[in-house]
Amino acid sequence: MEDDSLDVLRFRxxxxxxxxxxxxxxxxxxxVLRKVWAYFDSVGPLTGMEWPITYRHEEEQRLALxxxxxxxxxxxxxxxxxxxxxxxxxxxxxxxxxxxxxCLHTATLFPEEGVEVxxxxxxxxxxxxxxxxxxxxxxxxxxxxxEPVWGLLAEAGxxxxxxxxxxxxxxxxxxxxxxxxxLARHPRLRLIVAHMGMPEYGEFLALARAYAxxxxxxxxxxxxxxxxxxxxxxxERGRLADLGDRILLGTDFPNIPxxxxxxxxxxxxxxxxxxxxxAVCYRNAEALFGPVV
Length: 293
Hints:
- The protein has helices spanning 2-15, 30-41, 59-68, 86-99, 115-124, 134-137, 147-156, 176-185, 201-210, 224-227, 237-242, 260-268, 274-289, and strands at 20-21, 71-75, 103-104, 106-108, 129-133, 160-163, 191-193, 215-217, 247-248.
- The chain is of the alpha/beta class.
């Protein structure tokens, strides 16, 4: 693991970066994370492939590792798969952010009675980013129960990282269609499309072009692992350059089947230049969330 840290350090030094901001990392209550790992181990239907967890460690070791990579800000992406979970997860995430100040206070939601109340509570208590997982949660972002929530988050300017692409396996409500309908009603919603919208890369890049507050995170995109089953189309590389101010580094740490540095190397080999890399790995997140202090 020390070699991993040195490899990331060399990447940062080449670019002259003070550090990295990673908008898509997973810290969860321990029993929830263990269940997530067990799902990956079982080759569950939402993955459908071998998916070894590279950083399967206790929380303190995971925190030490991500800090050793020079990650100055990260998130605690967590998500419910049924009603009644989100408020409890938000309570845990608030406590986690209070004891781990380099973690952006993260919250989540689910279409259920009371969702507007606990989302408002989370925003008022300082939540900086939300996670919405349409695949795992199996819900429509246009569910009427969520309508006031999207308006609240748009008004507050709180970004939402949404797993809305149909990879690695499609869900009932994944794909650009439901998200496009959501954005048509809430064009100021600060939506961050997880995984670059994999595999509907082009369609989600088009939504980012159409809506100024839409961004995409790089989580697992462009890596050898993902290119094996969902390659990024070469014809879309021009859009990556054009939208370079709205692409944010995400990795899925610790739930990745390769070393952390591979995500960075995958971005570098796109050949879009050092300024693009500096923006993606640090400056774009700084512009969205404020300076790292």
